[in-house]
Amino acid sequence: MDGPVVCNLQFQLQLIIFMRTDTMSSRNDVWRFLCSGRTLMPSIAGLDPAVNLYQAKPHSLLRISLISGGWGVRRNLNQMGLHVGDEVSIIHKAPFGGPLVIESRGNRVAIGQQLAQKIGVEVVK
Amino acid sequence: MRIALVGQPNSGKSTFFNAVAGYRSLTSNFAGTTVEYTRGRARVNGDVFELVDMPGLYSLTSTSPAEACTREFLLEHDWDVLIHIVDASQLARSLTLTLELLDLEAPLLLCLNMMDEATRKGMTIDSAALSNELGVPVVEAIAARGQGIVETFRAAIKMHRQAPSTPPRPFLYAPEIENAVQELAEVVRPGGSQRAAGAPESRISPGRGVAVISPPIAGAQRLARFFNPRFEALQLLQGDPIQLALRDPVAAQATENIAAQITQRLNHPPDVALSSARHAACLNLFERVVRVTKPKADWREQVDRLLMHPLWGYVFLAAIFVGFFRLVFDVGKLGEGRILALFEQLIAILGQAMDPQGAWFALAQGALLGTAGAVAIVLPYLLPFLIGLSILEDVGYLARVGYLMDAVMHRLGLHGTATIPVLLGYGCSVPAVMATRILPSRRDRFVAALLAVLVPCSARMTVIFALVGFYLGAYWALAIYVLNLGVVALAGNVLAKIWPEIAPGMLMEVPPYRRPSPRVVLLKTWWRLREFVVIAIPLLVVGSAVLGLVEFFGWQNAINAALSPLTALLGLPAAVGLTLIFGVLRKELSLLMLMQALGTTQVNSVMSAAQIVIFTLFVTFYLPCLATLASMVRELGRKLTVAAASALLVMAVAISLAARGVLHLFL
Asked: Taking the mean position of all CA atoms in its chain, how far away is CA B391?
C-alpha cells in the first residue's frame, strides 16, 4: 500500500479533521479524500457501471466479485457476512434511489444506494 | 465468578441476562440498542455469579461507540467465562465472531439461540459435531421461550469448576499468515527482540488490550496475565492503518512491513486476507455440521412483500403511524385531564394550609406546577408513546421504517436509521434526542437531534392549536404545520451542505418479524421513562419554583424590560417577554402565562391576529425546553448543544421577522 505524501498544508489540515472525526467510516472517507489521486487502494478504480450491485436485476442470483472502497467499507460489509465470492440476491428495492434489501444465506441486509454501488457483482443465474 | 455475554446485535443476549439477573437490560429487534454494558448478580440452581451483558458487536475490530465498549470490556476487565450467544439461523455469519473470540484463548462457551428460527429455515444443526470442530462446549437454546437458559449457565459454571480449564485452541490461518503473525508478535511482545534498544517505546502495554484501537490506559489497569502477543498482532494487522500510525508509529512501521509482505504474497491486504480466511472456514464448518432442507413457507415473507412494497409499503407506513399517533393522543388526553384536576385540588389544599400571600406558597405552588407539567402533561403522552414504540421496535417494524425512509432522509442529509428519532420528535423531544444514540457518527447524531427538536412536539402542538387554531382557524394552524415541515427540510438541506454526510450510507440488518414479549416491552418502556424522570422532572420542579418566586417578588417587569429589544423587534407587546422564559421550562406554559401576563383569556382582544401568529411561530422554533436541552447535553455534549440552541434561536428570529414582513398582506 502506498502511503500519501505528507508534504502540503492541505494534508495537515485534513489530518486534523481526520483526528477529530469520531467514526471509522467517516475517517475512512477523509482518508480516501486524502489519498485521492494517489494509488492507495488497487480496487478503487471505477467499476463497470453495468455490474454494480445497485444496478443488478432483483431476484436473480448474483456473486460478489469486487468490493471497492477502503478499510471501513470492507470491514462493514464483511461484518454483515458479505465477502467477495458470496452469492446474494436482491429481495426488495426501495423507490427514489432508496436502499436494497439483499439476502445471502438467509441473512437479510438493507444496503444504501451509495454503498451498493461500491459492490461489483456478476450474474450467476 | 464472573460470566460475560457477548454476541452479534440482535442475537438475544439481553434475554439471557434478563432471565436470570433481574431488570437491568434491554432487548430489542433493532441493532444497537444496548450502548453500555450492564452487570447484575444472578443465581442459577443455587450458584451465585456476576453476569455482564454487553452491546452487540459484529467483530473485534469494530469501532462504533457501542462495539468499542464491548471490546474494551473483553480486553481490559477480568472475567472467567465468556458465553458467545449466536442467532442459530444466522450460524454461518455468526461463527466468524466465534473464531475471533477463540483467538483470546480464554474459556469460551457457544450458545446457539433461536433454534426454532433455524428449524423454520430448514436447518438441522449437529451441535455435538460443532463442539468437536471448535473445541468449545456448545449449548442449544430458545431463550424467548425460556428454553436452554439455565442449561447454558450451568454449562458455563461447570466449565469454570473444571479448573484449570484448558483454553481453547485458537483458529489457525494459512501458514503464510501465521508466520507473518508470529513475526509481528515478536515485535509487540514487551521487550520484543526486534525492538532495538533506545528505540521509542511502543504504547502497547501488557494486557489483552490493543493499543491500536483502545486508547492507552495506565499499565496498572491492564491485566498482565492476559497479554497475548498473537492476538495483539492479529488485531494490529486487521486494524485501521491510519489510526495505528497516529497512535503508535513504532508498531505501525512493523505492521506496515509485515502487511506489505502479506499483501504481496496473497494479493490482498491483511484485513481482507484474515476476514476471508475466517469466512471461508466458517462456510466450511457450516457445511460439515448443518444439514439444510427446504425451508417452510413463511407468512412473514408475504407480510414483507406488502410492508416493503414500493407503493403499499408507504401507504401502510402512513396508516400505521397515523393510527399510532391517534392512539397516543387519545390515551394521553384521557390521562392529562384527570391528573391535572388532581393537581389543581392539591394546589387548593396547599392554599388552605399555607399563607397564600407568602413567599413559601409561591415557591411550593411553582414546584407543584412543575411536577404537574411533567406528570400530567408529558407523561400521559410519553408513556403510551414509549410502549407503542417498543412494540413496533420488537416486532421488527422500525427496521422496515428505516428502509422505506432512507431515500427521503438522504435529502435531509441523514440516512434511514435517523427516521426514528425524527419521528419521535412529534411526541416529545426528550426521547427523540435520546434515540439519536442509535446513529453511528457524531455528525449524524447532531443533525438528527436538531431536526428532531425542530419538529413540533405535542406541547408545541397544543400552543399552535390553542392560539392560532382557536383564534384564526384550523387552516392557519395547518399552515404553521406545513411551514414547520418546510423548515425541517430546509434545515436538513442546509446542514447537509455545511456538514456533508460522509458515512457511506445505510447498512443494516433486516430482522425477521418476532412476537414481542410483554415483559420486555414494559422493561424497555420503564428504562426509557426512567431517563426522562431522572433528567427532566428535577429541572422542571426547580425551574418552576424559581419562576414562582420571580412572580412573587414582582421581577417580571425587569425581565420584560430586558427582553424588550426582542419583543419590539418582533412587534409583540412587551408583556409577553416573561412568557418566553416560561416557554423554555415547558412550551405549553408560555400559552398559560400569556393569558396571565396579558391579564385576559381573550388573547385576541389585546394582540392582533398577526401578533398571535408571530408569537406562536417564535415559541414553536426558539429554544427547546429545558428537559430537551438537558438530554441534548447528555447525548451531544455541551458545545454542540450550545451550537444547536443558538442556531435555533437565530432561525426563530429570522422566521418571525419574515412572518412580520409578510403577514400584513394577509391579515
From this structure: 16
